[in-house]
Specification:
alpha/beta, two-stranded antiparallel ribbon
């Protein structure tokens, strides 16, 4: 009898472990474009509507699921969504801006081929989503800190991989829809200021900035300097017809509110929603660029607006 009870306990433990494994992210490195394989996807299975999260090239997918803290991906899964997070690590480092955009389009087409798709994009990841243009399979967009005016200061990330993290660096600060110069500080301090105060260590955040390698992100920054992507970006933004939600932090110096407002204003969709997060609107803190997705208060202040954006009706 005792042996039977022990066997039953072991079987229940094994089933529990299997269930836990299924509820976590599942790697799928099978995004195809023609005969070529590109970025992989991390899957957070759910029974509800399908959501694709796209972060900035050059920044780890882990920004949406911080070990020991969590993040937007598991939060949406817990809300019942079927969540997929794009992982740029398998994108060839020789890829240029158009190649990155085409891969994002391939991911949306692949995930949307089975069922309707909603897209949540952060930072430069949203620029690639917009440049991909209207996709009929995408029924809603939520853009977090995605600028609609491409002539904007990228001081914190311009050529960051070629700089000394401890070197003095001047960062433009965003206040009341304007950018103003700030005192010099370490590059890492400048990045963290823009990102906001987060419950993750600076060392961990630093590791998330270059898992793909610096080449791709620096190429994107260089393309921005030359304004090489304006036409495709502007046309793509105007072509969007699905409901669009735009969210931004008041102290975001990478994509400040006055620039992300252009995403809201220029989107072709008739159904649009815009909000920036600040103490002035009753939020408990001033949000920066990455604190929108990993800030300790984002779960309470920001994530519910992401969910509302995923339910926005035309």
């Amino acid at each position: 009898m005792r042996r039977s009870l022990l066997l039953l306990c072991l079987l229940l433990l094994a089933a529990s472990c299997a269930s836990a494994r299924r509820s976590g992210p599942v790697n799928r490195a099978d995004v195809q474009r023609g005969e070529n394989r590109g970025p992989s996807l991390h899957h957070y299975p759910g029974e509800g509507e399908r959501v694709l999260i796209v972060g900035s090239p050059g920044i780890s997918w882990r920004i949406f699921d911080v070990p020991g803290f969590g993040g937007l991906a598991p939060w949406l899964q817990n809300r019942g969504f079927d969540v997929w997070v794009l992982d740029w690590r398998d994108l060839p480092l020789t890829a240029d801006l158009d190649a990155a955009t085409d891969w994002v389009a391939a991911v949306m087409d692949q995930l949307g081929s089975e069922r309707e798709l909603m897209v949540v994009a952060h930072g430069l990841g949203g620029v690639n989503v917009i440049r991909a243009g209207r996709r009929d399979e995408v029924v809603r967009y939520v853009f977090l800190a995605v600028p609609g005016d491409l002539q904007y200061p990228l001081d914190p990330v311009m050529d960051f991989a070629r700089q000394d993290w401890n070197a003095p660096h001047r960062l433009s600060e965003a206040r009341n829809y304007k950018a103003r110069p700030a005192a010099e500080r370490r590059l890492l301090d400048a990045l963290l200021f823009s990102y906001g105060t987060d419950p993750v260590s600076p060392a961990w955040l630093e590791r998330q900035l270059t898992p793909v390698g610096p080449a791709l992100l620096n190429d994107l920054a260089e393309a921005l300097r030359r304004a090489r992507w304006d036409e495709r970006f502007e046309q793509g933004l105007a072509s969007l017809t699905a409901p669009v939600t735009v969210l931004v932090g008041q102290t975001d110096a990478v994509a400040p509110p006055w620039q992300t407002y252009e995403t809201y204003r220029k989107a072709g969709s008739q159904t649009r929603f815009y909000r920036f997060f600040s103490r002035a609107l009753g939020d408990d803190r001033e949000y920066g660029h990455v604190s929108l997705v990993v800030g300790k208060d984002a779960v309470r202040d920001v994530f519910p607006f992401v969910e509302e954006g995923l339910e926005l009706e035309e």
